[in-house]
């Protein structure tokens, strides 16, 4: 049977109470409990508080010691059965864990940044349970970016955040730092806060102590109202009919635009379009990049014409950065120069700024899928469009639908005109009768 003895080594006040754990002849180890006491109150001979100690003090110390006894015995029974090495290091580590005391500043059970770093490292060989795929390199890079940002904030605050420090006070200070000092947009801050919340909830899931503030509705951030640009059908026709015979790079970029706006593919899937199966009238994709969906997309007449023009060959592969540069030139040449409200990155600050800009400057590859959804919305049922865009929820799909203020005005004017025509027709019928 295991024996536990509690004693002190020094006469200085306060003194640390030590524990000695003995099990048979093979196990005899000791460690500091980090329970501090005035040595005048303790009797090593009795392995207990002295009789004259007041009841309140006795109750306080005995409850702590009894709790620690139970933890040691319970952990020994499990760890010994599991074949773990039982020694003084084991006992010391067990006590630190019980009191949630970090072993060092890189203890991922206690500190926030080390936890994220460990989670990011593990994610390199982790499977996303929703998709059955490995966590993407891009996602892991986002984790590491968050680590870098929080480390910089820690330096400014001159502290290392524990998991329990991620509370509403942290939220207030960190969002102010991101907004006022780093000049981040509300949408970027919302993404960062959402990711931080995910890390803390993961730590809680693993049994580590966290602050309950993470569950609060206030631990969030409101996104900016999006100002997303898309190409309408008239603008797409201008691009399709543009004579670019003298410039192969721009002609190739124009063909990518046509493929993008009439297939509804994500940019990540458009990048690997050469892997897909083409029949006479459709593109067959066995598995989309983001959500592993199977999809069959009919070929639009402009896509068919582009393939015929290229002798059945797809546009040449090009980097997203180069494609986005060429897209703007193509759109400018096509006369898509209307000044509209949008967000454009300022090269000096590397931040997007809201303002009025020529539309061609706001067009990039991410506009393709939005153009597909917006141009078909209201003309065919939403389920049909979602079957092509592979949106899983209608709420996510609706975020892609963009209609300009001018188009709303035109729709309302057209509706009123149609109503007036119906009234006139009815009046004529009355007069004839």
UniProtKB/TrEMBL annotation:
Transmembrane segments: none
Pfam family, one: Phage_int_SAM_5
Keyword hit for DNA-binding: yes
Every Phage integrase SAM-like domain range: 112-215
Protein name: Tyrosine-type recombinase/integrase
Keywords (A to Z) from UniProt: DNA recombination, DNA-binding
Coiled coil feature spans: none
Keyword DNA-binding part of the UniProt annotation: yes
């Amino acid at each position: 049977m295991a024996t536990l003895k509690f004693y002190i080594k020094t006469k200085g006040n306060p003194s640390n109470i030590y524990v000695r754990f003995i099990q048979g002849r093979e196990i005899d180890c000791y460690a500091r409990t980090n329970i501090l006491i005035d040595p005048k109150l303790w009797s090593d001979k009795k392995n207990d508080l002295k009789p004259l100690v007041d009841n309140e003090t006795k109750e306080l110390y005995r409850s702590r010691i009894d709790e620690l006894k139970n933890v040691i015995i319970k952990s020994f029974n499990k760890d010994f059965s599991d074949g773990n090495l039982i020694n003084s290091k084991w006992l010391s580590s067990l006590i630190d864990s019980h009191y949630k005391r970090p072993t060092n500043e890189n203890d991922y059970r206690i500190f926030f940044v080390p936890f994220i770093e460990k989670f990011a490292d593990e994610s390199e060989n982790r499977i996303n349970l929703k998709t059955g795929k490995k966590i993407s390199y891009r996602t892991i890079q986002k984790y590491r970016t968050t680590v870098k940002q929080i480390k910089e904030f820690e330096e400014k605050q001159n502290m290392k955040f524990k998991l329990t420090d991620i509370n509403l006070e942290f939220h207030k200070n960190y969002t102010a730092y991101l907004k006022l000092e780093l000049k981040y947009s509300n949408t970027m801050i919302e993404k960062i806060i959402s990711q931080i919340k995910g890390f803390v909830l993961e730590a809680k899931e693993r049994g580590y102590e966290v602050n309950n503030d993470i569950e609060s509705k206030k631990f969030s951030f409101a996104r900016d109202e999006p100002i997303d640009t898309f190409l309408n059908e008239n603008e797409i026709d201008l691009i399709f009919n543009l004579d670019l015979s003298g410039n192969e790079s721009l002609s190739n970029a124009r063909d990518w635009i046509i493929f993008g706006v009439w297939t509804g593919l994500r940019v990540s899937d458009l990048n690997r379009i050469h892997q897909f199966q083409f029949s006479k009238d459709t593109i067959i994709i066995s598995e989309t990049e983001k959500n592993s969906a199977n999809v069959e997309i009919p070929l639009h007449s402009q896509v068919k014409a582009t393939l015929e023009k290229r002798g059945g060959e797809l546009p040449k592969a090009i980097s997203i950065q180069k494609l986005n540069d060429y897209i703007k030139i193509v759109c400018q040449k096509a006369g898509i120069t209307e000044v509209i409200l949008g967000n454009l990155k300022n090269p000096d600050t590397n931040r997007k700024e809201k303002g009025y800009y020529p539309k061609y400057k706001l067009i990039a590859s991410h506009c393709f899928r939005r153009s597909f959804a917006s141009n078909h919305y209201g003309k065919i049922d939403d389920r049909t469009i979602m079957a092509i865009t592979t949106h899983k929820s209608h709420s996510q799909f609706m975020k892609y639908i963009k209609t300009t203020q001018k188009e709303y005005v035109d729709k309302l004017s057209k509706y009123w005109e149609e109503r007036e025509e119906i009234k006139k027709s009815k009046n004529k019928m009355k007069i004839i009768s």
